[in-house]
Amino acid sequence: MTVYLSLSLTLILSFILTMVEGARLHAVRMEAECISDIGMNSVLAEFHRELLEQYDLLFVDMSYGTSSAVIENSSEHLRDYLQKNCSRSERGGSFGLSSGRDWLALSVDQAVIREYSLASDYKGNVMKRQALEYMKDSTAEGMALDALGLADKVKSLGLDTRDIAAERESIQAQIDAIELPKQEDEEGEEYEISLSNPADNVNASRGSFTLRTVTGKNASLSGTVIRLEDYISHRSCRSGLGINPDLREPSGILDELMFDCYLLEKCGNYRKEKENSLLKCQVEYLIAGEASDLKNLDKVVKRLLLWREVANVTYILSDSKKCREAEMAALTLTAVMLVPEFKDLVKYSILFAWAYMESVWDVRNLLAGGKAPLMKSGEDWKTSMSDLLFFSGTIPEKAAGGRGLEYEDYLRIMLCLEDGTKKIMRAMDIMEMDIRQTPGNAYFCMDACFDIFLADISISSAFGYQGRIKKRYGYH
To answer: How many CB atoms neighbour CB 328 within 10 A?
Structure first.
Protein backbone atom coordinates (compact mmCIF):
# COMPACT_ATOMS: atom_id res chain seq x y z
CA MET A 1 0.00 0.00 0.00
CA THR A 2 1.46 3.30 -1.00
CA VAL A 3 1.55 6.45 1.08
CA TYR A 4 -0.77 8.06 -1.47
CA LEU A 5 -3.37 5.32 -1.06
CA SER A 6 -3.10 5.50 2.73
CA LEU A 7 -3.75 9.23 2.68
CA SER A 8 -6.61 8.77 0.22
CA LEU A 9 -8.28 6.08 2.34
CA THR A 10 -8.00 8.33 5.39
CA LEU A 11 -9.77 11.12 3.57
CA ILE A 12 -12.39 8.79 2.10
CA LEU A 13 -13.11 7.13 5.47
CA SER A 14 -13.36 10.54 7.16
CA PHE A 15 -15.84 11.65 4.51
CA ILE A 16 -17.91 8.45 4.81
CA LEU A 17 -17.98 8.59 8.62
CA THR A 18 -18.92 12.28 8.53
CA MET A 19 -21.77 11.49 6.14
CA VAL A 20 -22.93 8.59 8.32
CA GLU A 21 -22.85 10.76 11.43
CA GLY A 22 -24.70 13.54 9.63
CA ALA A 23 -27.29 11.06 8.43
CA ARG A 24 -27.67 9.78 11.98
CA LEU A 25 -28.14 13.34 13.31
CA HIS A 26 -30.79 14.15 10.71
CA ALA A 27 -32.47 10.77 11.32
CA VAL A 28 -32.57 11.51 15.06
CA ARG A 29 -34.20 14.89 14.40
CA MET A 30 -36.66 13.47 11.90
CA GLU A 31 -37.61 10.52 14.05
CA ALA A 32 -38.00 12.75 17.13
CA GLU A 33 -40.44 14.89 15.13
CA CYS A 34 -42.32 11.83 13.90
CA ILE A 35 -42.43 10.29 17.36
CA SER A 36 -43.75 13.57 18.81
CA ASP A 37 -46.48 13.76 16.15
CA ILE A 38 -47.48 10.15 16.73
CA GLY A 39 -47.51 10.58 20.53
CA MET A 40 -49.56 13.76 20.50
CA ASN A 41 -51.99 12.33 17.98
CA SER A 42 -52.31 9.25 20.20
CA VAL A 43 -53.29 11.48 23.13
CA LEU A 44 -55.98 13.14 20.99
CA ALA A 45 -57.15 9.70 19.87
CA GLU A 46 -58.24 9.13 23.47
CA PHE A 47 -61.21 11.48 23.00
CA HIS A 48 -64.21 10.80 25.20
CA ARG A 49 -66.45 8.40 23.29
CA GLU A 50 -69.70 9.19 25.10
CA LEU A 51 -69.21 12.93 24.70
CA LEU A 52 -68.72 12.43 20.98
CA GLU A 53 -71.62 10.02 20.61
CA GLN A 54 -74.16 12.08 22.55
CA TYR A 55 -73.04 15.64 21.81
CA ASP A 56 -70.65 15.45 18.81
CA LEU A 57 -67.87 17.11 20.81
CA LEU A 58 -64.21 16.06 20.71
CA PHE A 59 -62.48 16.39 24.08
CA VAL A 60 -59.96 14.31 26.02
CA ASP A 61 -60.98 13.61 29.61
CA MET A 62 -57.77 13.96 31.62
CA SER A 63 -59.29 11.96 34.49
CA TYR A 64 -59.62 8.87 32.25
CA GLY A 65 -62.64 7.71 34.23
CA THR A 66 -61.06 8.20 37.65
CA SER A 67 -61.66 10.74 40.40
CA SER A 68 -58.22 12.30 39.77
CA ALA A 69 -58.62 14.95 37.06
CA VAL A 70 -55.10 16.35 36.65
CA ILE A 71 -53.14 17.13 33.49
CA GLU A 72 -50.27 14.96 34.73
CA ASN A 73 -52.38 11.94 33.76
CA SER A 74 -52.33 13.01 30.11
CA SER A 75 -48.64 13.91 30.34
CA GLU A 76 -47.96 10.37 31.51
CA HIS A 77 -49.99 8.96 28.63
CA LEU A 78 -48.01 11.14 26.22
CA ARG A 79 -44.69 9.99 27.69
CA ASP A 80 -45.77 6.37 27.44
CA TYR A 81 -46.70 6.74 23.76
CA LEU A 82 -43.42 8.52 23.01
CA GLN A 83 -41.33 5.93 24.82
CA LYS A 84 -43.01 3.05 22.98
CA ASN A 85 -42.25 4.71 19.67
CA CYS A 86 -38.64 5.29 20.73
CA SER A 87 -38.25 1.59 21.40
CA ARG A 88 -36.59 -0.17 18.49
CA SER A 89 -38.81 -3.23 18.89
CA GLU A 90 -41.94 -1.08 18.78
CA ARG A 91 -41.01 0.93 15.72
CA GLY A 92 -39.58 -1.99 13.73
CA GLY A 93 -35.93 -1.03 13.95
CA SER A 94 -34.06 2.08 12.85
CA PHE A 95 -34.22 2.86 9.16
CA GLY A 96 -36.95 0.24 8.77
CA LEU A 97 -34.69 -2.69 9.81
CA SER A 98 -36.18 -5.27 12.14
CA SER A 99 -32.81 -6.60 13.36
CA GLY A 100 -29.27 -5.44 13.87
CA ARG A 101 -27.84 -2.51 15.73
CA ASP A 102 -30.02 0.42 16.80
CA TRP A 103 -28.34 3.34 15.07
CA LEU A 104 -30.48 5.97 16.86
CA ALA A 105 -30.94 4.64 20.45
CA LEU A 106 -33.61 7.23 21.29
CA SER A 107 -35.15 7.78 24.72
CA VAL A 108 -37.61 10.26 26.20
CA ASP A 109 -36.14 12.61 28.79
CA GLN A 110 -39.24 14.79 29.26
CA ALA A 111 -42.83 14.90 28.09
CA VAL A 112 -44.97 17.54 29.79
CA ILE A 113 -48.23 19.20 28.75
CA ARG A 114 -47.63 22.87 29.54
CA GLU A 115 -50.83 24.49 28.29
CA TYR A 116 -54.29 23.15 27.53
CA SER A 117 -57.71 24.47 26.62
CA LEU A 118 -60.57 23.18 28.81
CA ALA A 119 -64.19 22.94 27.72
CA SER A 120 -65.19 25.28 30.56
CA ASP A 121 -62.64 27.99 29.74
CA TYR A 122 -63.84 31.47 28.84
CA LYS A 123 -67.22 30.81 30.50
CA GLY A 124 -67.71 27.67 28.44
CA ASN A 125 -67.02 29.25 25.08
CA VAL A 126 -64.42 26.55 24.28
CA MET A 127 -67.25 24.00 24.31
CA LYS A 128 -69.51 26.42 22.44
CA ARG A 129 -66.91 26.85 19.69
CA GLN A 130 -66.91 23.12 19.04
CA ALA A 131 -70.72 23.01 19.06
CA LEU A 132 -70.77 25.75 16.43
CA GLU A 133 -68.21 23.86 14.35
CA TYR A 134 -70.61 20.92 14.41
CA MET A 135 -73.47 23.21 13.34
CA LYS A 136 -71.59 25.01 10.53
CA ASP A 137 -73.01 22.69 7.86
CA SER A 138 -76.47 22.71 9.40
CA THR A 139 -79.52 23.95 7.49
CA ALA A 140 -81.02 25.43 10.66
CA GLU A 141 -79.93 29.02 9.97
CA GLY A 142 -83.34 30.00 8.56
CA MET A 143 -85.08 28.55 11.60
CA ALA A 144 -82.68 30.41 13.87
CA LEU A 145 -83.39 33.75 12.17
CA ASP A 146 -87.14 33.08 12.44
CA ALA A 147 -86.67 32.59 16.20
CA LEU A 148 -84.86 35.94 16.39
CA GLY A 149 -87.77 37.65 14.65
CA LEU A 150 -90.25 36.03 17.02
CA ALA A 151 -88.13 36.97 20.05
CA ASP A 152 -88.10 40.59 18.88
CA LYS A 153 -91.89 40.40 18.52
CA VAL A 154 -92.20 39.04 22.07
CA LYS A 155 -90.24 42.05 23.29
CA SER A 156 -92.20 44.59 21.22
CA LEU A 157 -95.55 43.18 22.37
CA GLY A 158 -94.37 43.18 26.00
CA LEU A 159 -95.28 39.51 26.44
CA ASP A 160 -92.47 39.04 28.95
CA THR A 161 -92.77 42.39 30.68
CA ARG A 162 -96.39 43.58 30.67
CA ASP A 163 -97.92 43.32 34.15
CA ILE A 164 -101.26 41.88 33.15
CA ALA A 165 -102.04 40.87 36.74
CA ALA A 166 -101.73 44.49 37.91
CA GLU A 167 -104.14 45.61 35.18
CA ARG A 168 -106.68 42.96 36.18
CA GLU A 169 -106.33 43.76 39.88
CA SER A 170 -106.78 47.48 39.13
CA ILE A 171 -110.08 46.75 37.38
CA GLN A 172 -111.19 44.55 40.28
CA ALA A 173 -110.21 47.22 42.81
CA GLN A 174 -112.37 49.77 40.99
CA ILE A 175 -115.29 47.31 40.98
CA ASP A 176 -114.86 46.69 44.71
CA ALA A 177 -114.80 50.44 45.38
CA ILE A 178 -118.32 50.92 43.96
CA GLU A 179 -121.10 50.40 46.46
CA LEU A 180 -123.50 47.62 45.54
CA PRO A 181 -127.14 48.64 45.05
CA LYS A 182 -129.70 47.82 47.73
CA GLN A 183 -133.33 46.78 47.55
CA GLU A 184 -136.07 46.13 50.06
CA ASP A 185 -137.59 42.72 50.52
CA GLU A 186 -141.26 42.05 51.21
CA GLU A 187 -140.71 42.76 54.88
CA GLY A 188 -139.15 46.14 54.15
CA GLU A 189 -135.62 45.14 55.05
CA GLU A 190 -132.74 46.24 52.82
CA TYR A 191 -130.34 43.77 51.25
CA GLU A 192 -127.42 44.14 48.84
CA ILE A 193 -127.78 42.88 45.32
CA SER A 194 -124.82 40.64 44.48
CA LEU A 195 -122.85 41.60 41.39
CA SER A 196 -122.57 37.94 40.29
CA ASN A 197 -119.76 38.78 37.90
CA PRO A 198 -119.18 35.69 35.66
CA ALA A 199 -115.45 36.52 35.64
CA ASP A 200 -115.21 35.74 39.36
CA ASN A 201 -115.33 31.96 38.90
CA VAL A 202 -112.51 32.04 36.34
CA ASN A 203 -110.39 34.40 38.46
CA ALA A 204 -110.90 32.17 41.50
CA SER A 205 -109.38 29.25 39.55
CA ARG A 206 -106.11 31.15 39.07
CA GLY A 207 -104.96 30.31 42.58
CA SER A 208 -105.47 26.59 42.00
CA PHE A 209 -103.51 26.50 38.74
CA THR A 210 -101.04 23.59 38.67
CA LEU A 211 -99.18 21.60 36.05
CA ARG A 212 -102.02 19.09 36.14
CA THR A 213 -104.35 21.82 34.93
CA VAL A 214 -102.58 21.85 31.58
CA THR A 215 -100.96 18.40 31.36
CA GLY A 216 -104.01 16.39 32.42
CA LYS A 217 -104.42 13.89 35.23
CA ASN A 218 -103.04 10.99 33.22
CA ALA A 219 -99.86 12.72 32.09
CA SER A 220 -96.58 11.14 33.22
CA LEU A 221 -94.45 13.81 34.89
CA SER A 222 -90.83 13.08 35.79
CA GLY A 223 -90.01 13.25 39.48
CA THR A 224 -86.23 13.50 38.99
CA VAL A 225 -84.47 15.81 41.45
CA ILE A 226 -80.76 16.71 41.20
CA ARG A 227 -78.17 18.31 43.47
CA LEU A 228 -77.20 21.50 41.65
CA GLU A 229 -73.94 21.78 43.58
CA ASP A 230 -72.71 18.58 41.89
CA TYR A 231 -72.59 20.27 38.50
CA ILE A 232 -70.32 22.75 36.79
CA SER A 233 -72.61 25.80 36.90
CA HIS A 234 -72.68 25.66 40.70
CA ARG A 235 -69.07 24.78 41.54
CA SER A 236 -65.67 26.40 41.05
CA CYS A 237 -64.04 25.33 37.78
CA ARG A 238 -60.53 24.41 36.76
CA SER A 239 -59.02 26.80 34.26
CA GLY A 240 -56.80 26.31 31.24
CA LEU A 241 -55.48 28.68 28.63
CA GLY A 242 -58.86 29.41 26.98
CA ILE A 243 -59.48 29.53 23.25
CA ASN A 244 -56.43 29.26 21.01
CA PRO A 245 -55.74 32.74 19.54
CA ASP A 246 -55.60 31.15 16.07
CA LEU A 247 -59.23 30.03 16.36
CA ARG A 248 -62.34 32.16 15.98
CA GLU A 249 -64.17 32.95 19.20
CA PRO A 250 -67.97 32.55 19.19
CA SER A 251 -69.50 36.00 18.84
CA GLY A 252 -72.51 37.72 17.35
CA ILE A 253 -76.21 37.03 17.31
CA LEU A 254 -76.01 34.35 14.60
CA ASP A 255 -73.61 32.27 16.71
CA GLU A 256 -76.03 32.58 19.63
CA LEU A 257 -78.95 31.44 17.49
CA MET A 258 -77.04 28.50 16.01
CA PHE A 259 -75.97 27.44 19.51
CA ASP A 260 -79.65 27.45 20.49
CA CYS A 261 -80.33 25.17 17.51
CA TYR A 262 -77.55 22.86 18.74
CA LEU A 263 -79.09 22.73 22.22
CA LEU A 264 -82.55 21.97 20.87
CA GLU A 265 -81.09 19.19 18.71
CA LYS A 266 -79.07 17.56 21.48
CA CYS A 267 -81.33 18.07 24.52
CA GLY A 268 -84.73 16.65 25.33
CA ASN A 269 -87.86 18.50 26.44
CA TYR A 270 -91.32 17.71 27.79
CA ARG A 271 -92.62 16.86 24.32
CA LYS A 272 -89.46 15.03 23.14
CA GLU A 273 -87.59 13.27 25.90
CA LYS A 274 -84.00 12.21 25.30
CA GLU A 275 -83.37 8.52 25.79
CA ASN A 276 -81.39 7.56 28.92
CA SER A 277 -81.18 11.16 30.15
CA LEU A 278 -81.22 12.06 33.85
CA LEU A 279 -83.47 15.10 33.54
CA LYS A 280 -86.33 14.62 31.09
CA CYS A 281 -87.11 18.33 30.68
CA GLN A 282 -83.60 19.37 29.64
CA VAL A 283 -84.43 22.43 27.52
CA GLU A 284 -86.71 23.59 30.32
CA TYR A 285 -83.67 23.28 32.64
CA LEU A 286 -81.62 25.45 30.26
CA ILE A 287 -84.31 28.13 30.63
CA ALA A 288 -85.29 27.78 34.29
CA GLY A 289 -82.21 26.26 35.98
CA GLU A 290 -84.17 24.58 38.79
CA ALA A 291 -83.24 21.35 40.57
CA SER A 292 -86.11 19.16 39.34
CA ASP A 293 -88.06 18.39 36.20
CA LEU A 294 -91.29 19.46 37.88
CA LYS A 295 -89.94 22.87 38.90
CA ASN A 296 -88.38 23.52 35.51
CA LEU A 297 -91.54 22.55 33.63
CA ASP A 298 -93.70 24.54 36.05
CA LYS A 299 -91.59 27.66 35.58
CA VAL A 300 -91.64 27.38 31.77
CA VAL A 301 -95.38 26.65 31.68
CA LYS A 302 -96.19 29.66 33.86
CA ARG A 303 -94.05 31.90 31.67
CA LEU A 304 -95.77 30.48 28.59
CA LEU A 305 -99.16 31.08 30.22
CA LEU A 306 -98.18 34.71 30.86
CA TRP A 307 -97.19 35.16 27.22
CA ARG A 308 -100.43 33.66 26.01
CA GLU A 309 -102.50 35.76 28.43
CA VAL A 310 -100.84 39.03 27.39
CA ALA A 311 -101.24 38.14 23.70
CA ASN A 312 -104.87 37.07 24.16
CA VAL A 313 -105.79 40.17 26.17
CA THR A 314 -104.19 42.33 23.47
CA TYR A 315 -106.23 40.57 20.81
CA ILE A 316 -109.58 40.35 22.60
CA LEU A 317 -109.58 44.06 23.43
CA SER A 318 -109.26 44.73 19.70
CA ASP A 319 -112.08 42.35 18.71
CA SER A 320 -115.28 44.41 18.57
CA LYS A 321 -117.51 41.34 18.39
CA LYS A 322 -116.10 39.81 21.56
CA CYS A 323 -116.19 43.18 23.30
CA ARG A 324 -119.91 43.45 22.48
CA GLU A 325 -120.49 39.94 23.81
CA ALA A 326 -118.76 40.88 27.07
CA GLU A 327 -120.80 44.10 27.29
CA MET A 328 -124.08 42.22 26.74
CA ALA A 329 -123.11 39.72 29.44
CA ALA A 330 -122.41 42.60 31.82
CA LEU A 331 -125.74 44.30 31.03
CA THR A 332 -127.70 41.18 32.00
CA LEU A 333 -126.53 41.57 35.60
CA THR A 334 -129.06 43.26 37.89
CA ALA A 335 -126.43 45.23 39.76
CA VAL A 336 -125.07 46.63 36.49
CA MET A 337 -128.55 47.72 35.38
CA LEU A 338 -129.07 49.53 38.69
CA VAL A 339 -125.56 51.03 38.86
CA PRO A 340 -124.34 51.93 35.31
CA GLU A 341 -120.83 52.69 36.64
CA PHE A 342 -120.31 48.94 36.83
CA LYS A 343 -120.86 48.35 33.11
CA ASP A 344 -117.44 49.06 31.59
CA LEU A 345 -115.52 47.68 34.55
CA VAL A 346 -117.44 44.39 34.53
CA LYS A 347 -117.11 44.21 30.75
CA TYR A 348 -113.31 44.47 30.97
CA SER A 349 -113.09 42.02 33.86
CA ILE A 350 -115.03 39.54 31.70
CA LEU A 351 -112.68 40.12 28.78
CA PHE A 352 -109.61 39.56 30.98
CA ALA A 353 -111.13 36.36 32.42
CA TRP A 354 -112.03 35.14 28.94
CA ALA A 355 -108.47 35.77 27.73
CA TYR A 356 -107.10 33.83 30.73
CA MET A 357 -109.39 30.87 30.04
CA GLU A 358 -108.26 30.89 26.40
CA SER A 359 -104.63 31.06 27.52
CA VAL A 360 -104.91 28.00 29.76
CA TRP A 361 -106.45 26.14 26.83
CA ASP A 362 -103.57 27.31 24.59
CA VAL A 363 -100.92 25.98 26.97
CA ARG A 364 -102.72 22.67 27.38
CA ASN A 365 -103.01 22.40 23.60
CA LEU A 366 -99.28 23.11 23.13
CA LEU A 367 -98.26 20.49 25.70
CA ALA A 368 -100.54 17.99 23.96
CA GLY A 369 -98.76 18.57 20.64
CA GLY A 370 -100.98 21.30 19.19
CA LYS A 371 -100.11 24.78 17.96
CA ALA A 372 -100.88 28.39 18.83
CA PRO A 373 -99.84 31.52 16.91
CA LEU A 374 -98.03 34.23 18.82
CA MET A 375 -100.90 36.62 18.08
CA LYS A 376 -104.34 35.19 17.37
CA SER A 377 -107.06 36.13 14.94
CA GLY A 378 -110.78 35.40 15.26
CA GLU A 379 -110.47 32.02 13.55
CA ASP A 380 -107.80 30.89 16.04
CA TRP A 381 -109.94 31.63 19.12
CA LYS A 382 -111.21 28.42 20.72
CA THR A 383 -113.26 29.27 23.83
CA SER A 384 -116.69 30.93 23.79
CA MET A 385 -118.70 33.25 26.00
CA SER A 386 -120.89 30.33 27.04
CA ASP A 387 -117.75 28.52 28.30
CA LEU A 388 -117.13 31.53 30.53
CA LEU A 389 -120.73 31.95 31.72
CA PHE A 390 -121.02 28.27 32.67
CA PHE A 391 -117.44 27.89 33.93
CA SER A 392 -117.33 25.19 36.63
CA GLY A 393 -113.66 25.24 37.58
CA THR A 394 -112.14 23.36 34.66
CA ILE A 395 -111.20 24.54 31.17
CA PRO A 396 -113.52 23.03 28.56
CA GLU A 397 -112.14 20.14 26.54
CA LYS A 398 -111.42 20.98 22.91
CA ALA A 399 -109.70 18.98 20.20
CA ALA A 400 -105.94 19.66 20.05
CA GLY A 401 -104.58 21.17 16.88
CA GLY A 402 -104.55 24.69 15.53
CA ARG A 403 -102.01 26.57 13.48
CA GLY A 404 -98.93 28.61 14.31
CA LEU A 405 -96.11 27.71 16.71
CA GLU A 406 -95.47 24.43 18.48
CA TYR A 407 -94.26 24.00 22.06
CA GLU A 408 -90.66 23.60 20.86
CA ASP A 409 -90.94 26.88 18.92
CA TYR A 410 -91.86 28.69 22.14
CA LEU A 411 -88.89 27.01 23.87
CA ARG A 412 -86.67 28.27 21.04
CA ILE A 413 -87.89 31.84 21.66
CA MET A 414 -87.26 31.51 25.40
CA LEU A 415 -83.74 30.22 24.73
CA CYS A 416 -83.14 33.18 22.43
CA LEU A 417 -84.10 35.54 25.27
CA GLU A 418 -82.01 33.71 27.88
CA ASP A 419 -78.59 34.91 29.06
CA GLY A 420 -75.85 33.34 26.90
CA THR A 421 -73.49 32.39 29.72
CA LYS A 422 -76.25 30.71 31.72
CA LYS A 423 -77.21 28.64 28.70
CA ILE A 424 -73.64 27.44 28.16
CA MET A 425 -73.05 26.50 31.79
CA ARG A 426 -76.42 24.76 32.13
CA ALA A 427 -75.77 22.91 28.88
CA MET A 428 -72.53 21.56 30.39
CA ASP A 429 -74.52 20.58 33.51
CA ILE A 430 -76.73 18.43 31.29
CA MET A 431 -73.70 16.91 29.57
CA GLU A 432 -72.25 15.95 32.96
CA MET A 433 -75.59 14.52 34.12
CA ASP A 434 -76.06 12.31 31.09
CA ILE A 435 -72.48 11.10 30.73
CA ARG A 436 -72.28 10.19 34.40
CA GLN A 437 -75.19 7.84 33.69
CA THR A 438 -72.95 5.74 31.42
CA PRO A 439 -70.57 2.96 32.60
CA GLY A 440 -67.16 4.08 33.84
CA ASN A 441 -67.99 7.80 33.87
CA ALA A 442 -69.22 8.41 37.41
CA TYR A 443 -66.67 11.19 37.97
CA PHE A 444 -67.00 12.90 34.58
CA CYS A 445 -66.54 16.68 34.62
CA MET A 446 -66.58 19.08 31.68
CA ASP A 447 -63.84 21.18 33.27
CA ALA A 448 -61.54 18.12 33.10
CA CYS A 449 -61.83 17.90 29.31
CA PHE A 450 -59.34 19.56 26.94
CA ASP A 451 -59.31 19.86 23.16
CA ILE A 452 -56.01 21.66 22.46
CA PHE A 453 -52.68 21.26 24.27
CA LEU A 454 -49.07 22.38 24.09
CA ALA A 455 -46.50 19.66 24.75
CA ASP A 456 -42.89 20.25 25.82
CA ILE A 457 -40.92 17.17 24.73
CA SER A 458 -37.23 16.35 25.12
CA ILE A 459 -35.81 13.31 23.26
CA SER A 460 -32.16 12.26 23.39
CA SER A 461 -29.95 9.69 21.69
CA ALA A 462 -27.40 7.44 23.32
CA PHE A 463 -24.93 8.86 20.78
CA GLY A 464 -25.00 12.27 22.45
CA TYR A 465 -27.68 14.11 20.52
CA GLN A 466 -30.63 15.80 22.18
CA GLY A 467 -33.65 17.55 20.74
CA ARG A 468 -36.36 19.63 22.38
CA ILE A 469 -39.72 19.99 20.67
CA LYS A 470 -42.65 22.24 21.55
CA LYS A 471 -45.85 21.63 19.63
CA ARG A 472 -49.51 22.60 19.93
CA TYR A 473 -52.05 20.01 18.80
CA GLY A 474 -55.83 19.95 18.95
CA TYR A 475 -59.11 19.22 17.19
CA HIS A 476 -59.18 22.01 14.62
So the answer is: 12
The answer to whether residue 99 scores a pLDDT higher than 60 is no
Helix locations, 270-392, DSSP H: 282-288, 293-316, 320-331, 334-338, 342-367, 385-389
169 vs 413: CA distance, rounded Å: 29
Beta strands in 236-294 (DSSP E): none
Distance CA 40, CA 207 (A): 62
| pLDDT at residue number 11 | 72
Task: Give CA angle at 136 (285, 54), nearest 5°.
Answer: 45
Phi-psi region of 464 (alpha: psi -120 to 50; beta: other; left: phi over 0): left
Q: Is the four-CA dihedral 72, 73, 78, 80 of positive or negative sign?
A: positive
Q: pLDDT digit string (tens) for 370-416?
A: 999 999 999 999 999 999 999 887 777 766 778 999 999 999 999 99
What is the torsional sign of CA 153, 154, 159, 160? negative
Q: Max alpha carbon distance in the chain (Å)?
A: 158
For the chain, helix (H) and strand (E) counts, in that order, are: 18, 6
